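Data card: per-record layout.
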Amino acid sequence: MSVTLLAHDDDGDSLIYYVDDARFRLSQPGGGNMATITYTPGEGDVGVLFVTVSVWDVFNTFDDLVLNISVQNVNDPPSLVLFEAVDVSDMDQVEYT
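The structure for this 97-residue chain is written out next.
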């Protein structure tokens, strides 16, 4: 998932973005008014996530935006385990558990 944000400061102050969840990556190329948030959900993220994005100016005034993200579960494929080779004689019974 990728979201691009655009903020505006009426005074023309420089802006800095912040996201309150370490699973989300924030990039603000050139330190301008635009920032991009990227996120790849994992198995433990199924459900609803609330993530707050803040934008601050140089005078410590800020604005917040809360993102409501719904992560849907997917049907994961089965996995097959490869067993190690075993030498057996004719008529021996071999069991794997």
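Known properties of this structure: The domain at 2-71 is CATH 2.60.40 (Immunoglobulin-like). The longest strand covers residues 47-57.

See the next section for split statistics.
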